[in-house]
Amino acid sequence: MAKHIVAAVKELPPGSRKLVEVNNRQIAVFNVNGEFHALGNRCPHEGGHLIDGKLVGLVESKMPGEYCYSRKDELVKCPWHGWEFDLRTGRAQCDPSRVRVRHYETAVVQGGEIDLDAPPKAAEVFPVRIEDDYVVVEV
Amino acid sequence: MNLSDIRAVDCDVHPTVPSMQTLLPYLNDHWRETVIEREITTLDTISYPPLAPLTARADFRGENGRAGLDASEVGQQALDKWQADIAILNCLYGVQLVFNEDMAQAFARAVNDWVVKEWLDRDPRLRASIVVPLQNVEHAVDEIERCAVDKRFVQILVLCMGETPLGRRQFWPIYAAAERHNLPLGIHAGSAYRYPVTSLGWPTYYVEDYAAQSLGFQSQLASLVCEGVFVKFPKLKAVLIESGVTWLPGFVWRLSKFWRGVRAEIPWIDRSPNEIVRDHFRLTIQPLDTPDDPDIVARAIEHFQSDDMLLYSSDYPHWQFDGDEIMPPGIPAGLHRRILVDNPLATYPRLGL
Fold it and tell me: What is the number of other CB atoms lying within 10 angstroms of the CB of residue B278?
């Protein structure tokens, strides 16, 4: 596992998303209320691009007619066939034990905290400023 | 008889009501006079016109062209012939078509009482389904409660095509009663003819009507699953009777596939419809819609991915097969005992009482 800087925090405000490429993998990075989530971009079903999916909440029910809604915007719905994936785990809501998309851990680091002896590898080439925060994805 | 000695349980046998005259002793004064005064001679429907080839095999028909008219005839022609130690009677008489819900209640009671007196009391091998007047849910529940006292009633019987999809919550008191009394919900081919039998409009020919039944079964299966009937009533089983059988896997693949993308619409369904169907649906094996090739029959059966779902039935006197082999060639020998005995006993708990 290696940490990769994928974006500056200020370019990814809450509600925004960014498609990044790390080691030839496309990763969809979402900022939901200040928390960063990263999933493989390719839906395991037919390959739809999750970066284009709508964010939805989790709807659960114990009994017909009951709707328990929680975790607003914490699932992404594949734009092709509507399968929902949990941004925190990558698991598909329709079959969580068997179907999942790759989930990546994220972190926010300050430019000044980056260890220059073993710097995270930038996914894209952009200047890293000591006073700014950056989104890091573990791949 | 010991349950272990049972050779076969025939899960679909049809007693024929000769005419409304037969039911007069089972009606109260008001309804008896109504039937006579209005000259209501029969409730036979176009689902099974008495002289249509499908309605009765030629070798079962008596001099008047009808079959299955009394218990001794059915005992010989169906039970003795096919070594059934138990047979479940599903009486198809057009009670479900009546618009007046009080009349429907009276006719359903008459049919059920006639079945007890003229059939169940005459042959200890016979069991029956409770004909319920779905026109009024309270009436239907009352009829279940009234009949369920008699343990020889082992199922409730409704038609494939009624007024409203069967999963809708208005029907749930019926399923609560069914679950309470260990009665599966038997859904039999046939229509109340409130609507055309296809969603396209009326077909022209009888064969189209009969073939369209499997589409009705598909929609009822989807309704019962999606509305969450089996979430609310986890002990309930639904038996699809005379449905044709082999349409099921393809339809359930389709239903399960599309559920994955719109799951949130019915969040109470938290596992694949495929699994729910395997747990809660059973099907009687006649007719079995396959080509004659035994290899194809075996492959079609494999698609169910379950050994529990098929129930033996002759569908007497309907003309579904010639000769004496009810079990279509190609059904794996290892499944025979399950289909003949084990699955029916597991599906109908009251058979063991």
Answer: 15
